[in-house]
Amino acid sequence: MDPYGREIHKLTEEQWEVVDKTLTNLSANLGSIIDELDASFGDIKKLNPEIINSARTFLTSEFGSLPLDISFLSSKLKDLKSHIDKLDYNDFHYDDNTSSYAYTYFISNDIWLGDIFFRAPDTGGFDTKEGTILHE
């Protein structure tokens, strides 16, 4: 049961493979962005504008609008990557009755995934597997 008494299930092996692949790719993508931000030594002119857009997109889900401060963006992305790298099988559950991609509760660090999550594209924006994990 989830904290509000809704029936949930542990992920199947197949579902966990999808989530694990998503976590691995998400961590790698974040790592690449962090590396590029750090390599610029705070000089925005050294960065491809797509890197800045990617950094801000990853963080907008979590923090809303952000200042264009390279060291701040890098620091927050490192925090986010650290959290994602700690997620494992026990942090995820499957809810076959939700109409959402996923949801969480303030009283828990767990993530409940719905059917839509498993049908979503892997990457490319908010309504994707990576975007869902970031949001939750």
Explain this structure to me?
A three-stranded mixed β-sheet has the order 1-3-2. A hairpin with a 7-residue loop joins strand 2 and strand 3. The radius of gyration is 16 Å and the shape is elongated. Helix 1 crosses helix 2, helix 1 runs antiparallel to helix 3 and helix 2 crosses helix 3. About 50% of the residues lie in helices and about 5% in strands. With about 140 residues, it is mainly alpha-helical.
Tell me the layout of helices and strands.
Blueprint: H1 13-39, H2 49-63, H3 70-86, E1 92-94, E2 102-103, E3 111-113, H4 115-119, H5 129-135
Parallel strand pairs: 1-3
Antiparallel strand pairs: 2-3
Helix pairs in contact: 1-2, 1-3, 2-3
Mean pLDDT: 82
- What form results from the Cα inertia axes? elongated
Proportion of residues in extended strands: 5-15%
Regions with little confidence, pLDDT below 50 for 5+ residues: none
Number of β-strand runs: 3
**Helical run tally:** 5
Order of helices and strands: HHHEEEHH
Our Rg estimate from Cα atoms comes to 16 Å
Helix content: 40-55%
Class by SSE composition: mainly alpha
- Biggest sheet, spatial arrangement of strands: 1-3-2
Distance between the termini: 19 Å
Largest beta-sheet characterization: 3 strands, mixed
